[in-house]
Design goal:
Largest sheet: none
Radius of gyration: 15 Å
Number of domains: 1
Number of helices: 6
Number of strands: 0
Oligomer: single chain
């Protein structure tokens, strides 16, 4: 098992927890939406664009499962670690992410697990 295999489940859980928290916020403002409609909103609506860096890295993580390039895999892990380091004074993603961690216990727990896996 390579390192990507080991961290993938925790990163996927983090991604899901963040999306769940964002969806709760979105539905509070727009009413209940079907899964397909929320997916469309994630893709099309500018106010949800801040999630793109995490979603993109999750996709790259999946692509790296069979990648033999150790340097690329290490860079991906470093990029993930830097991205999910919450910082209220940093880029849009980190500020919004830090806010999610403040009010979503599920996202906070998933964050801690992902950071542990990324540091292992």
């Amino acid at each position: 098992m390579n390192r990507i295999d080991a961290i993938r489940p925790t990163v996927l859980d983090l991604h899901k927890s963040v999306l769940d928290a964002v969806r709760r916020d979105y539905e509070r403002d727009h009413g209940a939406v079907r899964d397909a409609n929320f997916l469309t909103a994630l893709i099309d609506e500018p106010q949800l664009g801040w999630l793109q860096p995490l979603t993109s890295l999750v996709a790259q993580l999946d692509e790296a499962l069979d990648d033999e390039d150790v340097v690329r895999r290490r860079a991906l892990v470093s990029e993930l670690r830097a991205l999910i380091a919450p910082d209220t004074g940093a880029a849009v993603f980190q500020r919004r992410y830090a806010g999610i961690l403040e009010y979503s216990p599920d996202a906070l727990i998933a964050h801690v697990r992902a950071m542990r896996a990324l540091r292992a």
